[in-house]
């Protein structure tokens, strides 16, 4: 359970990539760091970063939040298991379902070595299995789900996924809509301000009331 109104949203179509010669963080990195400051993340007694397992997320977290507990979203991890099962046994087959369910149980019990061994047994003939041996090996410490549950931590990124789907995509992907990047980012910013209860700070009151009716 999370506190009502505790989630805030901050999004844009931006890159986090940088060159070695860049003097400033990438635009998306700056956005994250502004939100970190606004939410006083660095003052928290316990910090957690949840991601889908992509390497860039952990590089960013290691650089800026070295004390944070890192967690791979459990549903993304299980999605990778099912991807391997479908590649090995075929989509929708009983063998794929049975194999994946067994691996997911092992994952829930933090038997990561068993998961990796089962995937590795197919790596010689399956590219999907080869990729996922690396995925689970490199994220092993971030999949300690029994430990995380005992600590009272959330192991899933559903709030983020829901925000992407309902707040961002739900506004931009309506019928007949076409966007420039700058136009899309403008609407995203306003939508995030509304859903984060920051709209009065984002726009002057009189103008804001007009925008609010249009955006909703």
Helix and strand composition category: mainly alpha
Count of β-strands:
2
Low-pLDDT parts are none
Number of helices: 11
Query: What percentage of residues falls in helices of 4 or more residues?
Result: 55-70%
Strand order of the largest sheet: 1-2
Q: First CA to last CA: what distance?
A: 27 Å
> What global shape is seen?
globular
Mean pLDDT, all residues: 88
Q: Major beta sheet, specifics?
A: 2 strands, parallel
Strand content: under 5%
Q: Over the alpha carbons, how many angstroms does the gyration radius reach?
A: 20 Å
SSE series = HEHEHHHHHHHHH
Task: Explain the overall architecture.
- This protein has 216 residues and is mainly alpha-helical.
- It has helices at residues 27-38, 55-64, 74-89, 94-108, 112-120, 127-138, 145-150, 158-172, 181-195, 199-202, 205-215, and strands at 48-51, 69-72.
- It has a domain at 74-150.
- Strands 1-2 form a two-stranded parallel ribbon.
- Strand 1, helix 2 (55-64) and strand 2 (69-72) form a beta-alpha-beta unit.
- Helix 3 (74-89) runs antiparallel to helix 4, helix 3 packs antiparallel against helix 6 (127-138) and helix 8 (158-172) crosses helix 9 (181-195).
- The two termini are 27 Å apart.
